[in-house]
Structures are given as C-alpha cells and as structure tokens.
User: Fold this.
Amino acid sequence: MDNNFDSVLDMYLFEENTLLEQLDEILLKAEKEQAFDKECIDEIFRIMHTIKGSSAMMQFNSIMTISHKLEDLFYYIRENGIKNEFNEELVTLVFKFTDFIKDEIAKIERGESLTEEFNTLEKEILQFLHKISNKESYEEAAVTESKDLKKADTLKKYGINIFFDDDCGMENLRAFFIVNQLDEIGLEFSYKPDNVENNSEASKEIIKDGFMLYLNDKATLDTCVKIVKGALNVKDYTVLEFEEETAAKAAIKDIKDKNSHLQTNDTKNTSNSKNDLNTEVISKHSKQSLITVNLAKLDKLVDIVGEIVIAESMVASNNEIKQLNLESFTKSTRQLIKLTDELQDIVMSLRMVPISGIFQKMKRIVRDMGKELNKDVDLILIGDETEVDKTIVDGIADPIMHLVRNAMDHGIESTEERISKGKNPKGIIKLAALNTGGEIHIIIEDDGKGFDTEKILAKAKAKGLLQKAENEYSAKEIYQFLMLPGFSTSDTVTEYSGRGVGMDVVKKNVEKIGGSIVLDSKINKGTNITFRIPLTLAIVSGMQVVVGDSELIIPIKNINQSFKAQIKDIIKNTDGKEMIIIRDKCYPIVRLYEFFSMDTETKDIEDGILILVESGDRRICLFADKILGEQQVVVKPLPTVLNKYNIKESGISGCSILGDGSINLIMDIASLIDSM
Assistant:
C-alpha cells in the first residue's frame, strides 16, 4: 500500500512541478508581450484546473484551495476579459500564488505539514476580482458562474450514467477525474452529483445511483464515451437519450428505480416509444497504457546492464574458449555483443532528459532579480533541447542557478552605468548547451563588467593565499581564487551574494559529476563560464594503458593525442621538470610510474609512449609503457574505506572490472592536473 502511495505521490509531484514550470513560461511571455491573449488565459485555466483536481485527489487542501481560487479568477477573465492596465498586477499576483504552491510542494517533498491558514491569500484574489469586475461589491459568489455550468439541473439531450468497480473507494474523486478530462478538452457538459471535487459524501450517492453526465449534442456524447471507456475503475456505463429536455428529471428517477438492473452487464434497451429512454450498457475495456518508473529502479537497471557488459566481455575474451576455435560460438558471441550494445544504448537513453527544464527556470530568476535590482536583462537560451543524464541534470541545477544569480548581481551593470560606458541599456545573459560527442558544454555568458583581476588578487593577498609574486600570476590563475571557500570580492552582503559561499560549492558539484569549469573574462566586456561535463556517469569509453604490472583507464574525452617521443624532444625547465614542445606550445610531462609509485622497466622516454591529455584549458603529457586499446568500461565507485586517503584528489576517480576479471583504476585527469 505504501509503495503504491509513494508511486502516486511521485507522479503527482512530477506533474505539478512540470505544470508550474509551464505556468512560469506562460506568465513570463504574457509579461513580455504586456497582454494576456485568449490562448494564455485558456492554458492557465487548464493548468490550475489540473492542479486543483490532482491535489484534491491527494487531499492536499492548501494547494487545492488556492489553485481553485486561481481557476475561478481565470474563468472570470476568460468570460469577461481584462484591461491591459491590470496585466502587470495580474502577473505579480499569479507569481505570488504559484510560489505559495511551490513552497507547499517543497514541504510535501520534505515530508512536512502543509499550511493550514491561507485566508489572506484568498482575500487577495477576491480583492483583485473586485478591482477588475467594475462592481460595487464583489463576494466570492461572483465567480460561481463557472460552477453553474456543472449543475445537473441544466437539462441536456443526452446522458451517461457511470458505475465504478465495487469497493474501489474514493468514487467521488474517480468521477472528478472524468470531469477533469472533459474540462481540459473544453466540452460543455453538466454532472450529478455536482460536488464530487471535495465532498467524500458524494461517493455514497455515486455508489447508489451512479455518476451522471449530461450533454447537448451527439459529437460531445461520442467524445465523452471514449473518455469514459478509458477511465480507470469504470465498471459499466449506460448511454441515455432524452427526446425532450424536460424528460431528464424523469429519466433520473427512472435510473434510480432500475439501479440494480443497470449495474449488470446484460442491460438492454427497454423502450420502443419516442419519449422513453434509449439505453446502452457497455463494459469498460481499455486501460491506461502509460507508466512512470522510479529513478532508483532505472539506476538499478543501469547497474545490471553494466554487469552484463562485463560478463559479455568475460565470455568473449575467454582464452580457453578461443583455443577451441568454435565458429558457431564466435558467431553467437558477435550477436551477443551487438544485442548488448543495443541494450546499453536503450537503457542509457531512458535516463536522458532535456536540459530545458533547468534553463527555463532561469527565466524566472532573471525576471525576479531584474525587478529587485532594477536591471533590464534579456536571457537568451541556446541548445536547451540537449539531452543529458538525469543524475547530471540534477547535479548542475544549483551551479547554473548560482552563476546566473552572480551574473545578475555582480556581472550586469545598472542601466545608468551601462549607458555611461556606451553599452546597450539592456544587459544580456546567455545560457547555452552544446553536445560535443563525448561530453556536454554548458556555457553561462554575460556582457557585464567582467572579472576585476586586480581586485581579486588584492583580496587573495589580504587573505594570505599568494604563493608567488603577484606579477607571476596569469589571469586564469587569478580566476581560480574565486573557487576557494570563503572567497568573495563583494564589499557588502546582500540577499544574493557577498558571503563567500557559492563558487567553491559550484566547483565541487560540477567535479562531483565528473565535470570541470573553465573561466574566461574581459574587463567591461563580460564573463564566460563553461562547464564541461560527461554525457553519462555509468558507462564511459576509455583508453587502456600499461604502467609496469598495472593497467589504467584514461577517459577518451580527456585524450587529445598519443605519440612516440625522442630524447632530443625533451627539455627541462628551471625546476628540472621535463617538458615537451608540441605545435609551438610547451607541456609538462608526468611519468605515471613516478606519480603513482609503480615499478616498471620502461623508463626511457623512447621506449614508452606519451599521451597528451586535457581538462578544461589545461594540458599535460602522460608517460606510460604502452597503450592496449580502447575499452567500454563500467564505472564503479571506489570503496568508502579509501576516502580517508584522498585517492579521488590524487588522479583516480573510480575503478572498473574488465572482461578478464582484472580491476583497472580509472584516472581523473582534472584532479591529477590540480594535484601537480
């Protein structure tokens, strides 16, 4: 029972969050265009109606009540229109109420109790209705016109009498689901009982007499029948035709009298007269075909597929089997490898979600901060349809939000300052996502004031962070100070910044998902911050290299090239460290056997191989004994017992089991470069 509830709750939370994101987009569009068109009003009405219905089902009273009030508000606006002078106030009002709903949903996610007192919010809606209605007084009854459409007293030409499965429970809410679906597609209808939304007592009436829908035309009837057929827990339904609208009440009474007869599957048409009912009982035959899957189950599936990849590799590379030279086995193995690759691709695609969900949320942040800071800023989104692993999307949401807030607070100047500098009064922030094949680049760019390297360096000096002379620091080295905990160049603490908390967390969160950060800035021109993150964390392509008796995996995404070198190509810097010049650029050489304290007989530079690797804008050359080839490896985390040795900060990110059963360590090029 608990698992079922958790599953329903997950679906509810996902749906509500999605709808609220859509609502934010609609409101931002309306604010930008300074008008609410019919499409916007209808869509907002539909969204609030859906939130109201699903919240009523879950018995989240605060969300249900507030969304109901907003639904009534937009029903009034849909029927009567709204003057442009009220548009801005309406946007602000709806944002306030949607923020309330978001807070309530956050409480649900944390397992906290919902707000019980929200009369003040309800009064705000009534006051706004009073303002736009041009009436002397405006009570809550002013919007009951929307409810009047649903009263069963409004007689129709057709009817559908619906009975639900025995002991299914919550019949009133199941009836409301049907009402909700009909509302969403804009059909005109009425129903009885008319208080199914929030009255559990209506269930008794539905069990006894059935749930009645009343309709005016045949087309609407046909549409309703399709929806009723597909509704959950519908046992039987009866289609009724009234020759005269005045016969409807009599029909209802007739239904009650024949209730027991109507609940069976063998009910037949019983009338041959024009004024009698023409009935048809049809059993429910279609069920919902869509399901939602918990992310934890997908994670488990990915783990299992990873094990299958390892097992397939073990079978394919088994030396004992290879010696038998079995042609049929070899053929079957190739087919197995093909199917395994397809399975791997499908499983990984299940976890891929568009990054648009994060990008769209930034619109609201830019809007709210723009009003608070009195800054006019355009947010430009590029590549928001790019898909990334769900775990990675969750990991970069906070870093992106922090950098957008930083750009608004620190980067973009005030309108007056921009004009004095000869800039466009309106600032620009760009959010871009690019798929480069092996990884995703997330770019946060603004045309603001840029990083002041002198100010950063002075702050670093004051904190005693300098390890060499000030004039020896490059701009990119100076930018790295911004990533240190507690480092802030802001002179004052505001709601948004100045506490020295943020950029270090951004760096840690990005590195946690295997990514890196590249910063670039030009004074008075703007700032460009790029996240380089993997497409997925589960299965990666790597190059297998040998160092002594050990084998290591270098991620393909970090490899620029590999080559043989000669002794004459090697130079030494003033510290005696080995360097090599490649295409007029000098790169340090790291001998892996020295770095990891391994024994090897391959120490001559000409006997081994050099691999040029990169992380962000940083490059080094790694010296290894030889390269074995490319491998698809399943990333396994290192045992937690090893955390005390800071292995992850010393060039190792995880491990993998290969086909021959050996364990290979996976190198973390970013941390390796940092540790030098």
